[in-house]
Specification:
By secondary structure, this protein is mainly alpha-helical. The chain is 67% helix and 2% strand. The protein contains 6 helices and 2 strands. Helix 2 runs antiparallel to helix 5. The protein is elongated and about 55 Å long.
Length: 187
Amino acid sequence: MATTNQSAAPYTVPGLSTENGHEVAQTLQQRLHALNDLQLTLKHAHWNVVGPNFISVHEMLDPQIELVRGFVDELAERMATMGVGPSGLPGDLVRVRTWDDYSVHRATAVEHLAALDLVYNGIIEDHRDAIQKVGELDPVTEDMLIGQVKELELFQWFMRAHLENSGGALQHGGARTEQDAAESAAQ
């Protein structure tokens, strides 16, 4: 007979109320879904990048994928520590996400990088919102998220360096969708 799966334990970390600990963990769940999606999106771009800068972008993405996978594990373990079972299930991710699938398939390096720049904008903005939300409740979780944002912003800079002209303008500046960013960068 199957046992009932409880998603939350009746405890959290010392120094937080169970209610606050579980609230922080629920905030982390959305970040966990976003980063799981990001690692898959990066791998998709890694497989589908073509053109003259193929090898540099293909190889640049692998360490970022590994770093994001580490972030996913860190978030899930923090949630479990706080007494809330993390969900890494694809169906749950698709059901609760607030964003669409990545929309660029086989494309040049600059097209993927321009589209990924917009993906990173969303990830980083949402991580910063989570930092604000958890900051007053749990400085340990806040610190973890700050460290993740630091690394995500660094990688975004690496991507933008491929897209920037000497005046600092991005090839896809002003684009609002991944497809628009990719098309602008391709011109």
